[in-house]
Amino acid sequence: MNKKTLKDLPDAFFRGRRALTRVDFNVPLDADGSVADDTRIRAALPTIDYMADRGARVVLFSHLGRPKGGPDPRYSMASVARRLSELTKHPVRFHGSSGDEAAAVATRGLADGDILVLENTRFHAGEEKNDDALSESFAAAGDFFVNDAFGSAHRAHSSTAGVTAYLKPAVAGFLMEKELDYLGTAVAEPKRPFVAILGGAKVSGKIDVIEALLPKVDGLLVGGAMACTFFRAMGLETGKSLVEPDRVDLARSLTDRAGFRLTLPHDATVAPSLDRPQLAHAVRRDAIPMDEAMFDIGPETIASYARAIASANTVLWNGPMGVFETPPFDAGTLAIAQAMAEATGRGAITIVGGGDSAAAVARAGLEDRMSHVSTGGGASLEYLEGKSLPGVAALEDR
Q: Measured on CA atoms in the order 202, 205, 206, 211, is the torsion positive or negative?
């Protein structure tokens, strides 16, 4: 990685300095406002504790949800601060604003090793517009900048990119560094064989990543409803399955160019509708009934894809194999997760590219059996596509 990280700063640098740190604490909340899933908070702890242990005064800021038109107590960072205080040994405080003089004043009252969580950055209308004045106001809350919010790195916002114009040094935190190392190495220098698994509903959402990966992979396995657009390109009956008619020609072109490297499902788990899962059954891909839809890959495909994963030394997965929220249409997705966990155990590099795939791995209880589970769905896709991420580009080069 060619960006400066925390390890590029000497230990003595941290003591007494305010470390303005962009984290991704956009976490799900329960009905009472408490944190429902603290995965993203835990992911940032190595960065937070590393700096606090060295005497930095750690100032954290993040967006949470999609508040409309200004402050909304439903999206306050206060509950996130409470959960963080239970996860770290360092004192944690909360301040009810960000990007104003009061927030900057609050940071000056911190002791070495203290942590201060500022209020939701999206309470400011200028945040998503990368407003220059807001960027400068954010910068007043720190003496240097750390970006550990990979999940927001594809956004050119005041808190992710604009602030770096006013605050130096600007470096990557440990989570950001880990994301870039795993995702970057997977594409640039994979241990071969390199197998990628792509799923999800639509081909249109994965076109760029398919184009980017095709020249680099040894095998590309397709699942999810997006497979049905490829089936249509092959002239197969797809019944009531989700198909993108305007992408059929593209699917045909991708299939022709990919040759043997692209593998489509051999069979499908179908049903008359999603709300009638008790009628689910497996059929060959050339035998999908006109009055039914594909909601998951079938058992033959599960076995075939598991064999491909077992033969690989690098496995990259993005997108579910079916409607994994509704059993039994979760079988394909959970089987992929299990096959990847087994591959990790025998030494393969296994990378889950965020979003629904990460949620499925968490649901299966297999997060700890993957080499890396990305915290950024959209960011990981854009990075794999070879796009420059504004929140990364804004950091200092080594």
A: positive
Same domain, 163 and 263: no
- Check if 40 is active-site: yes
Out of 113, 239, 319, 355, pick the active-site residue: 355
**Which residue out of 93, 191, 202, 252 is catalytically annotated?**
202
Sign, Cα dihedral of 24, 28, 33, 35: negative
In a domain, residue 181? The reply is no
Strands (E), 235-291: 262-263, 267-271, 281-284
Catalytically annotated residue among 3, 40, 122, 155 = 40
pTM: 0.88
Please compute the mean of the pLDDT values over residues 35-46 and round it to a whole number: 93
Active site residue 200: no
Domain that holds residue 271: 190-384
Kindly report, residue by residue over 108-121, the tens digit of the pLDDT: 999 999 999 999 99
Least confident segment among 142-156, 279-293, 313-327, 378-392: 378-392
> What tens digit of pLDDT does each residue of 132-157 get?
999 999 999 999 999 999 989 999 99
Q: Could you confirm whether 322 is annotated as catalytic?
A: no
Q: Are residues 208 and 118 in the same domain?
A: no
Q: Is 54 a known active-site residue?
A: no
Say if 323 falls within a structural domain. Answer: yes
Kindly report the number of other CB atoms within 10 A of residue 214's CB atom: 16
Number of domains in the chain: 2
Instruction: Examine the domain organization and report whether 290 and 142 are in the same domain.
Output: no
